[in-house]
TrEMBL record:
Subcellular location: Mitochondrion
HAMAP family documented for this protein: GatB
One GO cellular component, as annotated: mitochondrion
InterPro entries to which the protein is assigned, alphabetical: Asn/Gln-tRNA_amidoTrfase_suB/E (IPR017959), Asn/Gln-tRNA_Trfase_suB/E_cat (IPR006075), Asn/Gln_amidotransferase (IPR018027), Asn/Gln_tRNA_amidoTrase-B-like (IPR003789), GatB (IPR004413), GatB_Yqey_C_2 (IPR023168), Gln-tRNA_amidoTrfase_suB_CS (IPR017958), Gln_synth/guanido_kin_cat_dom (IPR014746)
Key word RNA-binding present: no
Name by which UniProt lists this protein: Glutamyl-tRNA(Gln) amidotransferase subunit B, mitochondrial
Presence of the UniProt keyword Protein biosynthesis in the record: yes
Coiled coil: none
Domain called Asn/Gln amidotransferase: residue spans: 430-591
Domain of life per record: Eukaryota
EC number(s) stated in the UniProt entry for this protein: 6.3.5.-
The family this protein is said to belong to: Belongs to the GatB/GatE family. GatB subfamily.
Length: 594
């Protein structure tokens, strides 16, 4: 558990020394409040008795009840108008009678060195509570100090999502109490965000549901900057440890309009947003490493109804699979309730991977519950047009542009281009570019750029990827140094080694052999020794004579696939001296095949 290192008096004294009159005023104010608290209140018991006798409904509850009555009336009208339509064909599946609608709230940790309102470092990999400023813990008298550098990745994110940047925005306080929020409120931009009206294009190759066709244009309502909370670590049975390294970490919250109608498409949209943010260096970690979380708002309504159903919110989904499965489970739960004559309650719900149903966490809060108010300690955020223009001009390429370039310039397949984009948070793509550029700058042969790119792409994705999967280790650009990969591929392309020898050299470098590739080839005598045509014929004929049954199957049964068997036999027998194409050509000649 986090233990405060000093008493309240010491904290106040330390905080008031930091900046002068503002904090002195706060110290005086707190002293005044303490004096008021120490003064006995006359007739407290009689006042309390009188209060209990008055039936008083708080104004906040009146607002909530009135809003709920209006929503319920709208939904009742919509259901009555569609009841006959939805019940005409009782053999239809439930999913055909009801329309699913989903909106996303994606929270992404920005790639910054400092926290949003303090100069503490943002590293989470250090010891717990190693990077915590007094403001992060809401010590009395401390004031927020906006760290200007945190705005840069936020602008990159917003511009990459085609948002309009507001040159003037404002920070608000969102009040709620929880153990991971020391101040009792979160600083956010609910009413006046810095970016609005964006969109993201999600295509069929991004994994949207087939029912959505080739493209989904998802509109973004707003993007706001806000603080992250502390990290809670549950210690069974009843202890929770708090790590405040994360509290105050700069976040952006991307809020979309409710325009998604299939769980698979929702997951694809979150995946696409993550890939865009990573491509423009707005975030450092993806969903799988905890740098991105998603909340989903789910509702169902009768097909044909323009009114949306009562929504529920599923919080803190931390994988694409969780997004898809949680929406599916919540959709089915709501449909089952509605078809049995029940009604959906506005709730905040949770999801555990592997579950079959979401679980209620609490009643759904609204704006009134959070008591939003402008933060009086933070001046409006003013963003100059020159800064916006500069960020826009220097924005890195987005995923769709990168994939198009890989397919047109490098002539990679869509599958390979997408794999390079998505693997290892973009590190595999950077490695591919490094190897390709290094080889292109050194090549002394007329190999074309597309052919070079295809060779590099194949080895970076498939050959190196196979070794990574077999060893079950994460990718690192140093696990096979780019210089070693280039040397292996140069020797292979120049026919100085065979494909099997190249794979052997790759495995040796992968396992930690730091010797120069050419040195290994010389010392281990791995260079290709070019055999004469007569030697190829002699080896091939000997193998054919040993297996007349397969020869007959190839010649009479036209089972040409068995030809590969003999090619493999020749390459194993030749121990790195046999070229597969020459071996196949000689075998076809001996078998009378063309």
């Amino acid at each position: 558990m986090f233990v405060l290192p000093c008493s309240t008096g010491q904290r106040l004294a330390a905080s008031t020394l930091r900046s002068g009159t503002t904090h002195q005023w706060q110290a005086l104010r707190i002293t005044s409040l303490q004096h008021q608290w120490s003064t006995p209140i006359p007739h407290a018991r009689s006042l309390q008795t009188e209060a209990t006798q008055v039936s008083h409904v708080p104004f906040r509850k009146q607002l909530k009840d009135e809003a709920k009555r209006k929503r319920d009336a709208q939904r009742l009208d919509a259901v009555r108008g569609n009841t006959q339509d939805t019940c005409k064909n009782s053999n239809d599946s439930s999913s055909k009678k009801w329309k699913l609608t989903v909106g996303l709230e994606v929270h992404a940790q920005l790639n910054t060195e400092r926290k949003l309102f303090s100069d503490a470092m943002t590293s989470e990999d250090c010891a717990p509570n190693a990077h915590v400023a007094v403001f992060d813990l809401a010590f009395p008298g401390t004031q927020p100090e906006f760290q200007k550098a945190t705005l840069l990745p936020a602008l990159r994110a917003a511009l990459s999502l085609d948002c309009e940047i507001r040159q003037r925005s404002q920070f608000d306080r969102k009040h709620y109490y929880y153990q991971d929020q020391p101040a009792g409120y979160q600083i956010t931009q609910y009413y006046s965000p810095f970016a609005v009206s964006g969109n993201v294009h999600v295509y069929d190759h991004d994994g949207i549901a087939p029912e959505d066709g080739r493209i989904v244009n998802l509109a973004i309502k707003q993007i706001q900057m806000e603080q992250d909370t502390a990290k809670s670590n549950l210690q069974p049975p009843s202890t929770t440890l708090l790590d405040f390294n994360r509290v105050g970490h700069p976040l952006i919250e991307i809020i979309t309009h409710p325009q998604i109608h299939h769980p698979q498409t929702a997951a694809a949209c979150v995946r696409k947003i993550q890939s865009i943010l990573q491509a423009v260096n707005a975030v450092t970690k993806g969903m799988e490493l905890g740098g991105l979380r998603a909340d989903v708002n789910v509702s169902v309504s009768p097909q044909g109804s323009e009114a949306l159903g009562q929504r529920t919110e599923i919080k803190n989904l931390n994988s694409f699979k969780a997004v898809e499965h949680a929406i599916t489970a919540e959709r089915d739960r709501q449909i089952a309730i509605l078809e049995s004559g029940g009604s959906i309650e506005g709730e905040t719900r949770g999801w555990t991977l592997g579950s079959t149903e979401t679980e209620k966490l609490r009643g759904k809060e609204g704006e009134v519950d959070y008591r939003y108010m402008p933060d009086p300690d933070i001046a409006p955020l003013i963003i100059g047009q020159d800064l916006i223009d500069h960020i826009d001009r220097t924005l890195p390429k987005r995923p769709d542009e990168i994939i198009a370039n890989l397919m047109t310039v490098c002539e990679l397949t869509m599958k390979d281009a997408k794999s390079l984009m998505s693997l290892d948070n973009g590190e595999r793509l950077d490695y591919f570019d490094t190897v390709r550029t290094m080889w292109a700058s050194e090549k002394n042969d007329p190999i074309s750029a597309p052919r070079l790119s295809k060779i590099v792409g194949n080895w970076v994705l498939h050959e190196l990827g196979g070794l990574l999967n077999a060893a079950n280790v994460p990718f690192s650009p140093t696990i096979v140094p780019p210089r070693s990969m280039v040397s292996i591929l140069q020797n292979l392309d120049a026919k100085k080694i065979t494909g099997s020898t190249a794979k052997k050299l790759l495995a040796m470098s992968f396992d930690g052999d730091e010797r120069n590739v050419n040195t290994i080839i010389d010392q281990a005598n791995l260079g290709l020794r070019h055999l004469s045509r007569e030697e190829y014929i002699m080896m091939a004929q000997a193998l054919l004579d040993k297996d007349p049954k397969k020869v007959e199957q190839i010649q009479k049964g036209k089972q040409l696939g068995k030809l590969k068997f003999f090619v493999g036999q020749m390459m194993r027998q030749g121990s790195g001296t046999i070229e597969a194409q020459k071996a196949e050509a000689v075998l076809k000649e001996l078998l009378g095949l063309k």
